[in-house]
Specification:
The protein has about 425 residues and is an alpha/beta fold. Helices cover about 30% and strands about 20% of the residues. Strand 11 and strand 12 (about 270-275) form a beta hairpin. Bound molecules: zinc ion.
């Protein structure tokens, strides 16, 4: 093990950063999560202003805004004509082609978002950071595909990332995060609560059970970190909103009867994106969206005020974002085969076997309560410089705690500093 890091957290052997997506600030209470509630009443923390997206990891690890790291689901490609085989494939029913793609995806792991038919899918260049099951630093770097991140700053051999979306992995994550190896930054993403929130947590008893499980996980992690003099930072980047209604945007689009060549769309559960290749398509779709009361349409320029600052329409020309509690269904990730496979494979998603719609979701506009995150530095000698920080501040803040200067290419700043003596 390398020497103590004396410039960062006081005499700290290493810093453990624990991200728990889906841990809803509104659900943290002395009754349901006594340990986390106590930590938040005694340790320095700030709420985290997020982005309208279900995926924040790319922004957290890079410290850059989406238009800079460019990992923002999908980018429209320039395509000129179709090959003969593509023309043949396009005559087949969507259900047949997407089922074939889903099987290929299961067997070979390639073919991202296989649930989108090939005729639409080939128009997209997918730029996503998405893990299932378990993942590690190598998987993170592979999906970042050359985009700079905190791993590059700390050093690939001094920074470790671990991901698991399985509740049963909690003890393993705690044990591995607290191993004494030559690592300065240990990034642990415990994703089980998010998975359970999407598919399972419905009743007060389930909230109590699963939030209690996460509370126990944090308690164990904190105790072990204290025993080994590891610094610990706790974070969640969103909660979940119960889904009460859904809108079939795909059907509304088909009803307009606009030629497919005149527009493209990408349908996430709470955000739809459109690109227009004709004025007619733009007008018809905008008019249709204005009549859907459960969402709000925003141009890519209007998204700038939310921190999504693309200067062109490549990642979406017009966005349509659902109101909290609303889901666009069916969406581009829905397929009966996928529901069957994940419902059978993972007990946390078992409900997918009979209900293909998520029961709760997130990624709505950041001002909504379900989208509030927090970052807590479990060392009361520190304090944030504001009660609200941004997602892009997370990586610079971790670097600050490690006693390192954030690089110029990060958009955020280090927000936690040692308290000045009175
Ligand atoms: Zn989620």
């Amino acid at each position: 093990m390398r020497g103590l890091i004396l410039v960062g957290l006081h005499c700290m052997n290493k810093l453990v950063f624990c991200l728990i997506p889906g841990l809803d600030l509104r659900k943290i209470s002395p009754d349901q999560t006594p340990y986390i509630a106590e930590l938040l009443s005694s340790q320095p923390w700030a709420t985290v202003k997020t982005l309208p997206s279900p995926e924040h990891l790319s922004t957290i690890v890079t410290g850059m805004k989406p238009h800079r790291h460019q990992i923002w689901q999908t980018r429209l490609r320039e395509i000129s004509g179709r090959s003969l085989s593509q023309c043949v494939v396009d005559t087949l029913p969507d259900f047949m082609t997407t089922t074939a793609q889903a099987v290929i995806h299961q067997l070979l792991g390639c073919c991202d978002v296989p649930t989108i038919p090939p005729r639409r899918r080939r128009a997209f260049d997918f730029r996503r950071l998405k893990f299932r099951g378990r993942a590690n630093t190598r998987d993170l770097l592979e999906q970042l595909n050359g985009v700079k991140s905190i791993v590059d700053v700390v050093g690939k051999d001094r920074c470790r990332y671990r991901f698991s979306d399985r509740a049963s992995d909690a003890p393993r994550l705690v044990a591995e995060a607290c191993e004494e190896e030559g690592v300065d930054l240990e990034f642990v993403q415990f994703h089980a609560l998010d998975m359970l929130g999407h598919w399972q947590i419905d009743s007060p008893e389930e909230f109590r059970r699963y939030y209690g499980m996460v509370d126990g996980f944090v308690r164990e992690l904190h105790r072990k970190c204290e025993a080994k003099r590891f610094g610990l930072v706790l974070m969640t980047d969103h909660g979940q909103e119960r889904v009460s209604t859904s809108v079939d945007l795909g059907r509304l689009i088909r009803r307009l009867d606009i030629p497919r060549s005149e527009f493209a769309y990408y349908l996430q559960p709470v955000m739809a994106r459109f690109w227009f290749h004709s004025e007619r398509a733009g007008m018809a779709i905008s008019q249709m969206l204005s009549e859907v009361k459960q969402g709000i349409a925003m141009s890519y320029e209007e998204m700038h005020c939310l921190g999504v600052e693309f200067t062109g329409p490549e990642f979406g020309e017009l966005y349509f974002i659902a109101e909290p509690g609303c889901l666009f269904f069916p969406h581009d990730f829905h397929h009966p085969l996928v529901n069957f496979v994940f419902g059978m494979k993972d007990w946390q998603q078992r409900n997918r076997l009979w209900n293909p719609r998520h029961i709760a979701y997130h990624g709505y506009l950041p001002q909504h309560e379900c989208e509030k995150g927090f970052m807590a530095v479990l060392d009361d000698r520190y304090e944030p410089d504001s009660t609200v920080i941004s997602l892009v501040d997370i990586a610079p803040s971790l670097l600050g705690l490690l006693g390192r200067e954030p690089p110029d290419w990060m958009d955020g700043t280090s927000r936690f500093a040692k308290r000045q003596p009175m």
